[in-house]
Structure formats: C-alpha cells, structure tokens
From TrEMBL:
The species this protein was found in: Pseudomonas frederiksbergensis
InterPro entries assigned to the protein according to its UniProt record, in alphabetical order: MetalloPept_cat_dom_sf
Protein's recorded name: Dermonecrotic toxin
Gene Ontology molecular function, alphabetical: metallopeptidase activity
Amino acid sequence: MPQVTCHTVKKLQQTTIDADHIAIELNRQSADHVDKAAVIEAIQTYSKFGMNYLKAYISCHPESSFSLAYEPAQSMLAETMQTRAFIELRHRYDVDSRHVFAVYDDGLLCALIPNWHPDEGNSELEIDLNLDAEEFSDFKNDMYAIAGLAAMTGGAVYSNNYVKVEQWLKFHDYYVPSNEAETLNLFKFLSMAPIESPPLGNYWELLSPPGPQPFSLTDANKANIREVTLDLVNGPNRLLQTLSRGLLHSKSADYIRNNADALLQKMVSSEAARQWSQEYLDALGWYGAHEGESVDVVHLDQLLLTALLLDQTTLIDTHLAEKHIAGYNLYSPDNVEKSLQRVRIELEYHLVATHQYPDTLAPLIAHLLLAGNAPEFLVKDAPSSLLLGTEQWVDFRQGVCLAELNAAGSSRVMTFPQLQILGQIQPVTPSQESIHGLIASEIIMDWALLHGAIDQKDLGAPEKTAFATALKAFRRNADLLAEAAQTLASPMPTRREAALKMLQHAAPAPDFLQKEVLYLKKGRGEDFFNEPLAMSMLDLHMSNDLGTQEWDVRKPQISVYQRFPKLLSNLASPHGVFDIEFKRAHKQHENAVATTLKLAMAALPQHDRNNFQRGKINVFTIRPSVVKQDKRPNLPVHPILAMLHPDFSILPRHPDPVENQRDKDAATGRYGVLLGVEVDNQFYCYELFTLYGECRKNQELAKLIIDNNLLNMPSRLAFTGNLTTYTAPTTLYELPLNVESYTHGVQPESGKHSKGVIERLGSIAAPSVTEHYASSYQSFYSPHIQTIADFVVKHRPFVTGQELHADAWGQTKWEEAIQKSDDRLATLVNIIVPFKACIADLSSDDADRKLDATSSCSLEVVGSLFMVVGAAAKLASIAAKSASAAAKAANLARAASALVISAVNPLDGVPELITGGFKLLGKGAWRLSKAGQELLDSGTDQLRRLINNPTRELIEATRHMDMSRGTWKAMGQSGETSALWAVRNVDDWYALNLRTGKPWGPRLTALQRSKMALSRVWLKLMPDSFAFSYVRKSLPIAQQKIDTALAQLLTQSDHVEIRSLLKSIFGDDSTVAATLVSDVLTKMRKDMSHVSIKNIHFEKIPNEGALAEMYIDRFAKWKAGNYQSDAFNSKFMTIYTAEMSDYFQTTKFDRGRIADGIVHEMSHGSQHTADLMYAGLRTAGEVDVNPLMNLAAHPWNSGIPQAELDHFMKIKASLPGVVSRHPALLNADSYAVAVSLLNQRSTNPPLFIKNLLAMELMRAGAGTGLFKGSVIVDLSTLA
C-alpha cells in the first residue's frame, strides 16, 4: 500500500473538555488555599509546643495542585505494593500490610510502624533493599520511577494520605526555613490577606502595551476613541470638564484628593455616562457592541475613564518621558526628603500652571496619572513623616510594588501598615527572589535620582551604565554601614586569643592546651582556698611563664616540654602580637563609631544638616556637680609640710565649696556631647548621644549658653594645670535635659530638666569652603561632618582605648595570685554599640514605632528592603542588626545587577516596561528581554497564586461558560503568543477578564485553541522515568490487545457484533473489509512482538500537543534489517512524556489506554496508515467516536484536513478498492479504537455491548446525514 506520510504524530484532540474548564482551575487554586490553611495551623500548633513543624503531617485537599501532582506517585506506589517482589520484600523483613510505606527521592523505601500516626512521623524503619538481585530488576525500575516522582512532589511518596509540611513547602518552591526568624517570615507570608484590585484597577489597563490579555488598545482603537470624544464634546480636553460638571461644585482640593476614587466612579457610572461608554464600545466593536452581548458595567466604566485619559493629549504624550509625569519630575533631587503628600500637591500645581487645568480638576488628573505610574503617592494613610528617598520610603515602596504586581490598583485600597508589612516580608521562593531583585532595580534608580547619584541626562545613556552608576552609589552606603556594624558587633581581639594562636603552632594539641593540669614545680602556687594552683598551658603562655619551665604536670611520666619538643624554640611572647592586633581593631572600632555619629547628624532635617556643614562647632560636655566643702582648720602650716604637700597652704582656710579637674573629668558624661553651631550670626545647639547614635536640636540650651556667655569659657583641651588643685566650682545650671542620659546612658527624652554643669570641650573651625548637600545621603559624606565625628570619637569616646585594652588584656589566675588580690582590673565588659535607641523600634511589629525609628539606624540604604528578619540568632545591638540588613541589601543589589544585565534587552534603549498594571521598571527605566519578561511573569504569577484565593462568585460566574484554553497574538504584532482563557459567544471567541469573570475585548480572530496540560498546572514536569515505567508495562498490553482482536476477526468475523463494529468504525462490514483488517492486524502482531522499550525514545518537550510520534523511515529500516537494533533506526518511536503523562493521569492511570496509543503508532509503521481523523479524547477512558463514525459513513463530508484529503486523492487510484471507497480503513485512530473494542468484547462483554449500542443508536437515528452530537464509548480497562 502506498505510504501516505513518513512523519505522522498522534495529537491531542483540540476540543475543550471538562478538565480544561477554568472553573476547574479556579477550584484547584481554592483547594491550594485549603492546603495552605493546614500548613499555617501546623506551624502555629507545633511551634507553640516547641515541636518541629516541618515534620508535621497534613492531609491535602484532593483537588489541590499538590494532590494532582501526587496522584501519579501514589497510584504507582499502590500498584507496586501489590507486586510479587514487594510482597516478598515485606515478608523478608517481617513487615505486614498494616504499615505505611514511603519512598524517598533517593530511592530509599521505608516502612512506618503499625498504627502509625502523624505525630509519630520520626518513627521510621529503614529497609535495606537488595535491588541488584535479578528477581527484583523490574521492582528496581519501579522504585526509580517512584523516586523521580517523589523528587517532583517534595521528596517523598507515602502510601496513605498524609504528607509532611516540609514536603508541601518544597513542592510549592518555598524556601524551607532553617531558623525561627525565617519561620516567622514564612508564617507572615502564608497568613497574608488576599490582595485584591478595586473595580477599576489602576485605570490604565487598556493603555498598557500588549500583554497576556488582549485588552490593550491599538493605535487605531485610540484614534477611534478620540473621534468619538470630539463628536460628544466638540473639542479636545473637554471630556473631564463635561463629566465632572456639578460633581465638584464647592468641593475643596483636600476633599477631592481624599475621595478621588469615589468621585471618578460616580462620574463614569451615571446614566448619561454609561450611554457615552456604549458609544465608545460600539466604535471599537468589542464584546458588548453586538446584539445578544451583555457587557459588564465595570468594563464600560473603565472604557470611559480610558477615553478621559486619551482626551488629555498633552499629558499622555509626555507623562512617561524620563521619569516625568506630565512634564513633572517626581524623583528630582529637589524632592528628596519631601513628604509624598507635598510632592503630589506640587504635581497638581504643575498641572494648573503648565497645562492650565482648573484647580478643581487638577487633583483628579493627578490621581489618574499617579495611579498607573507612581501609586505610592496615593496611599491614603501614609504619614506625613514618610519622606522620599529615606529608608522608610524604600521599605514602603517595596510593598507598593509587590501589591501592584499582584493586583493592579490594590495599593490604593490597602492600608499603610499592610503595605509596610508586605514590603518587609522577605522572598519565600526563588521566583520571589527574582521579583524582589527587579523591584530593587527600579527603587535603586529612583533613589539615585533623588540623591543626585545619577542625573536625568544619564537616563538617555545605555541603561546598564545608568544602573551601574546608581548601584555603585547605593552599595557604597550599604557596604559602609555593613562594615561599621560588623565591626561594632565583633569583640575586640584579646591577649588570650593571640596566645592561643601562637601556642597552637608550637604545641598542636587543641584539647590539651586549655586543661588546667600544670603546677609550679618549686615553691607553692596557691589559689584562694590555699590549694595548689593548677594552670593551663594557655594561661601560662599569656603571662610569659610557660617558657620559664617552672611549671609541669604532676609526677610526669612525660613532661610537657618532652611531649612538645619544639615548644620552647617556637614560643614567643604573645604581647607584641596582641598589641598589633588590638591597635588595628581599635582603629576600626573608632571609624565605626564615627560612622554612627555621621549617620546621626545626617539624619537631621536639611536646615540643621546645613548648619553642621557650614558653621563653627563648639563641643560641650555635661556632668553633675563634684563640689567638696573645704573643712580644714584655719591654722598655719609648717613650711616643710607645705613644701611636701602643695595642697596645704599657709593661707587662712574657710569652708567654701571647691572642686578639682580630676574629679570633674571622672564625672563628665561619656555618653553624649553638646554641639553648639555658630553660623550666619545665629547659634544652634544639638545634643549628640553617642550611646544611641541620635542627634536632636535643643534651642533652650542654645539660649542658656548664649545668655551665660559659655562660648567664651576656657576649653578642657586647653587645660594644662594640676589635676588635683582645688579651685572654685563651675556654675551649676537648671538644664533642659536629663544629665543621666550623658552620665549613665539613660534613654534621652524631650522635656526633661535637671541640674548639671556645662563645660566647653573644644571647638572646630568652620570649613574654608562652603558645603551644601541636599540629602541625608550626601550629607553623610560631608567632610565637615566627618571632622565633627572624628573630634568626638577622639576626645570624648564612650569607651576609651585604655578601657578596651584592659578588658582585652585579661588576667590569669597566676597573675591574680602574684598580685595577692582577688580584684581584677576594672574592665568594661559591656561595650555598648550606638543605635541602642533603635533596637526596640526596628524590632517592633508596630508600624508607627518602626517609622519613627531614627534614620541613623541605617542610612538610606535599602537595608530594610531586603532585611532578613533574623539570622542564626538575633544580634545584641541595632548596629549589628543593621549590618545584617545592609549586607543582605548589598548582596541582593549585586544579584539585582546581574539580573538586570541579563534580563535587559540592550537594543531597546530606555522605553518603559508595563506589566501587571504597574510600570515595574517604568517611567523611563528599562525594557526586559524575553528571558527577563518570562522571569517577571512567572514570579508575578506565582505571587498571585500563593496569595490570592479565587472567590466563589468568580468560580460560579465562569462555571457555565463555554470556554477554552488558547494562545493569541494581536494581528500585526511580533513576538510571542500569549496564553489565555477564551469564552465563546455563538461563533465568536473573546478573552476572559479574570478580574470580573466576564468576556471582554475584541474578537479573538487569531485564537489557537489548545488543551491545557495538567502538568503545567503546578509548573512541574513528571520525570521521564515515570513514563518509561508505564510505557514499558503497556507494551505487552498492546501486544495482547492485537492478539485478542485478531483472534476474534479470524474466528468470528461474521458475528453480528463484529460486523456492527466494522460498520461503525470502518464504514464497511463486508468480508473483504474484515479480511483487510485481519491482514493489517497480522502484520502489526508480528512487528509488535519484536518491539521493546529499547525502540522508544522519551522526549520531555511536547511537539504541538503530540502524545507520540512514529518515524516511518527508521521503522522500515529496522524491520528490513530483521528487527535488529542499531543506534539510530531502532529508536523509531518517540513518546512525549509531558503530554503522555498528562493523558495517562486523565485516564486514571489506565495502561490499557496507553496501549491503544501504541497500537495507533504501530499501525503507522506496519500499514502506513494516515491521521485522517481522531476520536475526541475525554476524561478517564472515554472517547468521542463521532469523528471516526462520520469518516466511516460520510468520508468526503467528514472534515478530513485538506492536506490529508489532497494526498489521499492523489494516491487513491493505487489503493485497494475497498480502501479507496472507505478511507477509514487507512486511518490509524480507527484501528486503535477497533482493536480496543474487539479486545473489550473478550475482556469486558457488558461494557462492549454498551459501547456498541451507543454507536448503533447513532447510526439508526441519523438517517443518511452526518452524525450529530457526541458518541461516547468507554475504552477503560479499569472498569
């Protein structure tokens, strides 16, 4: 018989089936949230009792994504448990059927004890399998396949319905927490309330560039809308004025601003407005413009608002240029540290002054423009203390971006605390990590613009250059803070550490070096209780006594000096090494403290920062009174005594108060100083708390200093007198501060008063060159502020180098004994790090407290943007915590850099990117490449899926729609097609708007309908080993089906049932037809007997929906070579595992249906059959044979694809007469169905009769015309 085609494939039927309906997908998402609730409960319950929640077991909803993915694994495990090998294995290890069995991703098989309960999940019995035994070879393959499925589903497959929380997390790509902080972060994310868009989203959906939904207006659409507007209002820029007439009368700007969403909704929903909306809709010809199409009112309102935006021609044409909106630069350096409300109002002023909008309309126009481009300016309860370019703004901006990506317009209906929490939650999946990195890229660019690190002109340069510059500036801050905080959090090097390092080289015995087993050989070294003093080698080396050889172990068989023969020759004093290391660390410590002081000063308002940058600085200290009463008698003193004791005087004595410099120095507060600034003939005073890293203005002190002429008092640095000489006391004042904040480190508070003494420490001259920096970031790098910080650190540190040195020096027991004293040197054990004031605020979950935390906690780095809520343990100081934040920020900034560089299309210049209703990298930033866009889309899709739970209303609204999954690309558009859900209305298809649950947009003339593969529901592909297993087991079933079918044809071809079957499927029940079918099956049986799994190639990538593919040329060569294997021709069949595994699951894991597919492909090879028509695939084992019956009865009107029909007509003359009259005898799927039914007649006669009756009834009722309606037959072998 002539060959019809040399490359045929078995394709999935391109019809919408129940499993493809969107209601099923929405139900699945809803079931996922039921699973999530179970995980949340497990975390709460187990954590409450200090138990490991990751090992807790949950039962998943049967319709959830996890259960759908888990089903093949459980089915295969259940089947394997019934095999002889498994039963023998159980008996070998005395494990009965009451056990719960688990297969892990490493192939390990475990049995859980009888009567196992989830709370006993750790009680697992490991079974060692002898998989190398020949008798277990198939079992080994099955275990390999199940292990592959276990890897796909999070690491394990259980024979019951329980799964571990850890497994569920891995399946959904969550990072598995490793500590309490990560657990808290995950819990916050899982517990997050759904994020929903307002009805009209962000107003800009129809003006977004073409994306996954065809709701974006083309240039022609926009022109049509503008023409309708001209007809309605007789001129441009009048639509808003017309619609708002009477609505804004006597309304204040504040009222309009605060109620903009409600006013816009009211404006577009009036009866007259809806009529205008319909006119726009009619002009577009979108859904709702034709008879019988009922459009959702939300779509009408959105269309009218779009027309309103398009009417603002000058704004639309300029609003996206170089980070501008309507020509106004939101992120200009002039706006740094302005409140969001102020910038919004300035935009309104700009619209009035530049574009001549009325005062009443400007707030509405600004609202519309900001909603789609900079929604952070529209959050209603954002506090006035939230300033552009600050840390709090960065944190907040992160939350807004995430909210808008998840649901366009949602940030306008969320509260400020909700957005803050969202911004503070760290990524919980790799996709979210990517999303956060992309968001960071935009925020870094805007941060850099605000702080002047890059300029507007830089945006015209290649985007990588601009971003690299911005990132460098950002990382400069982050890295500096991280370095300072790490230094402050690190202990100083000690003499003990230096001695240990040296000793380890000289005597490599780490367990022995610190054992106190050495005693003084001569004399009696004693401890406090007069017991012989035992010392360690380390302690003796610290004090340089180890080298004296006067110490050794008691009654030594081997002396330590013999045990370590190179000890003495390699031993040097640790003191020199310690001094070098200490000096280096102390310098780093001073630099770090100076950094904290610079941060404190840079955090002040701009006017105060300018004072520091330009003025002369007078530094004052605070102390309590140290006055003493001189009660010595008024008697003359002997001259010799007066010479020996200068404190005694021969002058007359009187009981007046006195003090000396030594006492004053000891009492002077070390935890803060006063900074008096002389600038522009004005005097300002600031309290700088070195303990808390805080600087605050205090003009009451300024007045006190001026009124009492304290600027002219002598400075401490100029003092050269005797420290112990008594003098008249310094004046004691009632000070507007708390003296104990300076002397004892008490938390500073406003409004406090106490008695104390102010003394001038020294002064710093005003800079010779005037400095002016607009932002905190720039002020931080002010040379004069650096000089101030260095001065304070040098002359009034909160801990001196001597104190640190004494603490790091330490003292051994032998040194204490030598001193005959139990008193150690006074040490400063608690080296308190600046920023303490911020610990409670930044650690708090209270959004207001966190917002009020001083900016000195961490400068405007994106520290909190990517702050890991906790590391291995919470650091003791805010400096160390900020270090962790800044280090993480720097790392992710670097990752963001690599991500942007790889994701950005270098050929695109700097246009906008608009996605998900939000310009993620918009306002003149970058456009992502295909890879970058896919990364963004997948991350955004996962974010929405993990957070949002579809409402029952949406599910019900879509349940009864005629829907299909498909791909679409706008006419004339280049690029990739987009996947979407489409709704049929009569003969037309429209896209489904998932926000409203209603059809919307233009007719989808280019829609390509396609089946949605189940495996893509959870974005994972089942392993090839799974397909290998069920295909291998299906080969003998295919052989058996052919054998059974052939036997019936050879022995009972005249039976009425067989004749009826041949008539229905092939269109001819004659003896000639029966003989032809028998001959075909005979060839197939012979060929099939030589087919093994070695002849099949497994390919994961689907081929346009194909299940399998037969290479006819390779098959022919393999057959001509007497079925001998070779490297190429023996692989004549390809199984597309992704599609085939999906199909296998829809059949409820019926290998008989896989065998039918193999029969189909084998008919291509053995008989050169064609793919003229396919049966329609349904759920489980059901197929719709209507197409095959029409091919059999009415071949020329049955809808054979034109290419196949043309080829058939070309070879028709060379075909046997019965085939030329009945093309079904050349159709592969007809043979596959016929073989399956003939086999069923033998194995399941009742089901066969039911199927045969369905076909006969259709034939009887159709007369001479085409068969209408489905003819469902059940080919399942599971029934």
